[in-house]
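On to my pick:
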Amino acid sequence: MHQNRTTTPIVTRVSKALVGFLLVVGMVCLGIASANAGPTVIGVDGTTVHIPIDILDGALDVNYGALRKLPGYDVVTVKYPRSFGILTLGGPGYDKSVAIGKAGTIDQIKKAQNGDPTVPVKLACWSQGADVCTQVNDQFFEEGYNQSSVDYLLFGNVDNAYGGCKVWIPKIGKNGIFIPGAGVTLGNATPTKASDAHITELLYEYDGFARAPEYPINILADLNAVAGTLLEHGSYRFADPNAPGNIVSTTPDGKITNIMIPVKEVPLLTVARFFGLPKFAADVINPTLKAIIDTGYGPVAKGPGTYPTEAVSMKLFPSKEKFQLDVTNVQKGLAESGEKLAAIFRPASPSPTTQSNHQNAVTTPIQNSGPPVAAHRNKLRSSVSPGRTNHVNTTPSSKASKVHRGRSGGRSTHSANSS
């Protein structure tokens, strides 16, 4: 009994010391976590084929990797499957992949801010990653999470209100329809919604994932969208959101900015040139083909308050007013193609500079003939003896007539004055 009474206070003191030590360690860890909170750029990549080599650029490569270079920002990438079931040769289906990416993105945002909503966070979200970020934004909005310092850049966004390929499919029943193998649900998507975050959507004009034709009955528009997806959807490395030629619009509340990068040559012709179509032929065809392809789309939103907040799903036929406008635009395209074709066969007219140079080339010998003539006259004058006066006889004489006859006959003659 005496031994137990002695050891009990020792155990108590050791326990208290251990608890105190753990408290100190916990506070230090919390302090380190707090110190690690800071401005962060988060990349959320798009779908990739599950083979050893990642064949597509990452989300952080947008605009020549500008977001990687922001001073004072940490850069992280969300790790998630980025898969599409059998379409990506492995990995979970699309829906499960997006759910995993959503959880990982929320975790990264909260780690970056660590409870301080004033810490700036910028997200670069591409393709499937844009779908992930759309769902993150929706969940934060529903939870009331403060996103006032969060910026979303969604490019190649499949949830674009106008033409995003997920919202392009009309609603199918209450929950949509699940496609096995690919593991994706279609016909239940909603477009990216406004929140207290700053949201920017960036897309190429004919990226079929981000802007599908509104009227798929236009087969040329459909084929061009496929070509555009192949050429443009993986090319956001070269996309500059601030380029002067971009077409910018906003939602009526101003909370979502949509930036469309126009394309001069339609992707179908780019593909055709790859297979041998001469460039001059593509230049002639392009205005007409572009006008026909654009009849498969609705009017392009331009300016503040013009971008829709509700999904614009595909339709079968355009309205009468749109049809009339399409006819006018195709006529303009035909006229422009005709002008380009005529310019090829029209002889090039000389420029004013060329004409001036030609005139100078003709007149210069005449203008410069003065000095040699004057020198010849001076030579003749100097050959005359001093003090002697020469008279020119303007009356034809018999000798002069003989000289003329002699020249006519081919004989060598002398001057009449030398006789």
Q: What stands out?
A: The longest strand covers residues 198-204. The CA atoms of residues 251 and 308 lie 6 Å apart. Confidence is low (pLDDT under 50) at residues 1-7, 24-34, 361-419.
